[in-house]
Amino acid sequence: MLQEFGIADDIRARMLNWRHDLHANPETAFEEHRTAQVVADALMEMQIAVDRGLGVTGVVGTLKNGEGPVIALRADMDALDMQELGASPYQSTRKGKMHGCGHDGHTAMLLGAAVHLARHRPFRGTVHFIFQPAEENEGGGRKMVEEGLFEKFPADAIFGMHNIPAMPRGKFGIRTGIATAFLDTFEIHVVGKGCHAAAPETGIDSIVIAASLVNALQTIVSRRIGAVESAVVTVTQIHGGDTWNVVPEQVILRGTVRTLDAGIQDRVEAAMKDVCAGIAQAHSAEIDIRYMRGYPGVINTPAETNAAVSAARNLVGEEKVMTDIKPAMGSEDFAFMLQKCPGAYICIGAGETANDPPLHNPYYDFNDAILPLGAAYWVELVKQQLPVA
Ligand SMILES: [Zn+2]
Ligand SMILES: [Zn+2]
Questions:
Q1: Which residues neighbour ligand 1 (ion) by CB within 5 Å?
Q2: From the CA of 136, how far away is ligand 1's center (Å)?
Q3: What is the dihedral sign for C-alpha 213, 214, 215, 220?
Q4: For the chain, which domains are there?
Q5: 160 C-alpha vs ligand 1 centroid, how far in Å?
Q6: How far is the CA of 250 from the centre of ligand 2 (A)?
Q7: What is the Å distance from ligand 1's center to 168 Cα?
Q8: What is the pLDDT of residues 256-282, one digit of tens each?
Q9: Per-residue confidence at 389, pLDDT binned at 50, 70, 90?
Q10: Nearest ligand atom owner, CA of 360
Q11: What is the number of the ligand closest to the CA of 141?
């Protein structure tokens, strides 16, 4: 029988089918009903116990083989609200929806691993296969945790994986500690006093105040956060004014803050409130800021990071597993699971050329060539964490 990284030919063929089927039928946050059905059917076919409905469309498969430790493996299932521009035979059949982040591939790889593990049972203990909804924006991982994921399925460790087109295929990358940024959003209302554009002295100009606020916010990172610390404050929206000759009463600003440390996150939030209060006072205006904490950082625990590294090295060799990659300023809701359970999140290289389309690009397409390696990584991790003898 043909094998690649120990994954049998028929499992590789099934992974390819799942991947293309899910790619053609992308579903976004909490609407992954068809996807969840495909996943549940595949698990049940292998006599894996299936739980459905955590986080609306979440699926958890449980495979027990004797007494032993419990490991949880997590894949995300959701697509993005974007129009696919690539033309594959399995391109998206749903307008404005696309698997632009490769979660179709993540789901296929974890299903492939489940088939292999159910067939050969090379472990002693319990494996939970967690298929989560709504990783993009809506925090499906948080919802599963809030609805009792770990009370229902306690685990000694949990592991996640993401494909990275910018990293060559055949490589893995990981780091201990913070791996992805804390992501917060803010909305600021600058309320002045509307007036005639010819007589600004009769009002309070919310546009001028908003302009100085945007600049002042940029001094938080440059003047209040140390040079070797990390933070990004980005204003992404400015809304105000309707016509040529009226100074608007109000301007609304929105944007995001990303940090790599909970202490710095606190400091940036406090500094933003300071700046808003100070600018308001200086201009006799009113400035309200709403600061919303979003996804926390993914923080890999040391022992589980080592386990991930050693599983990956067993497959591709020591030199192809980078153990100190830079943290990403993007964010990932696997972080909510790591707040409850030790674990590690690994990046699997998916790049064939130096300029493969990046994640969230309309021409992006998950690289099928990594399906066997991804599945083999899960299998290797289970074998190591749940040894038979
Ligand atoms: Zn994404
Ligand atoms: Zn993703």
A1: 101
A2: 6
A3: positive
A4: 3-180+296-385 (3.40.630.10), 182-293 (3.30.70.360)
A5: 14
A6: 37
A7: 19
A8: 999 999 999 999 999 999 999 999 999
A9: confident
A10: 1
A11: 2
Strands 172-173 and 343-351, by their bridges, are: antiparallel
User: pTM for the complete prediction?
Assistant: 0.92
pLDDT tens by residue, 75-105: 999 999 999 999 999 999 999 999 999 999 9
DSSP 347-359: EEEEESSTTPPPT
Tokens (6 digits) for 247: 């100074």
Q: How many CB atoms lie within 10 A of CB 263?
A: 9
Question: What letter represents residue 124's amino acid?
Answer: R
Ligand nearest to the CA of 106: 2
CA gap 307, 36 in Å, rounded: 29
Task: Give the ranges where the chain is alpha helix by DSSP (H).
Answer: 9-24, 33-45, 103-120, 140-146, 149-152, 206-219, 262-283, 302-316, 334-338, 371-385
| Closest-CA residue to 106 (of 145, 70, 160) | 160
Region 298-306 average pLDDT: 98
Distance, CA 70 to ligand 1 centroid (Å)? 28
Q: How far is the CA of 193 from the centre of ligand 1 (A)?
A: 41
The rounded Å distance from CA 230 to ligand 2 centre is 22
What are the tens digits of pLDDT across the range 138-161? 999 999 999 999 999 999 999 999
Q: Are 201 and 283 in contact (CB under 8 A)?
A: no
